[in-house]
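Before a colleague's protein record goes any further, I have to sign it off. What it holds is a sequence and that sequence's fold in token form. Would you go through it and say whether the fold makes sense for this chain? The record follows directly below this note.
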Amino acid sequence: MNSEEGNQTTPTEFILLDFNIKELQIVFFILFLPIYLATMVGNVLLVVLVFIDQHLHTPMYFFLGNLSFLETCYSSTIMPRMLIRFLSGNQSISLSGCIAQMYFFGFLATTECYFLAVMSYDRYLAICRPLHYAMLMNGRICILLITVSWIFGALKLGIVIFLVSQLTFCGPNEINHFFCDFTPVIRLSCDDTYLVEMTLLIFSSIGTLFPLFIIVISYVSIIKSILRIPSTIGKQKAFSTCSSHIIVVCCFYGSLMIVYVLPNTSSLSEVKKLFSLFYTLLTPLVNPLIYSLRNKEVKEALQKTFKILPITK
């Protein structure tokens, strides 16, 4: 063993650099804490509404309730630890904690892609095949689609994380990000990472591009069907049932593509970090707002729920 190899040490923890502005840590805490709390309240409220309101016991709201539940888990994978770092100033994260965060982040992000594809397919059946909708999207099929989405997301990321956990890390242990994302962590390994990177690329393509393909095909068919509706009111009513979903898909996939499709250069690292906030923080925040503000049934369920609450004094 030469002296250079002998001086190498395997780090037991990583340092998350967050936004590289230590002087504003308290400001970031004050900014992000209300956003996290609003995200949790909004998504949990949607889950509760879907569960207790009989009018929301339909496939579309069943999928929406699962999406909101996923968003609460998704935000909680990253935000609590980040808020603690802002408050304490301790930016370290253990190697096992970093790998665990990578797994749950990747698993939930992939599952969300599947959920969005399932929801677009649901809208396709409702608009393009309304006479067969009840048969093609019954309760059993809804549960099967959601279960398969959860399982595929979990298994696929499990393989990637296993490969990452076999890597040896040495030398620098600073991650220029606010959470343990795959690319910044893999770059710190002193092993040959070709197999890990290719596996990640293949599984990421399956997990994001395949659902996106389903979404695009579904909405091309939906738009064609809407354009064939003779009345303007009919077109508006049909489009209103899927407009919220289109907004969510654009927000989530738009930011995801900017972060993972643009080249990994130092000049773009801060830009990518900024757009990472969109799919990790802002998308979970705006989802319940988009679906509640643009959806008549959800607004009616909210009104009924808050009318009932004062009676229990």
DSSP finds eleven helices and three strands in the chain. The first strand starts at residue 13 and ends at 16.
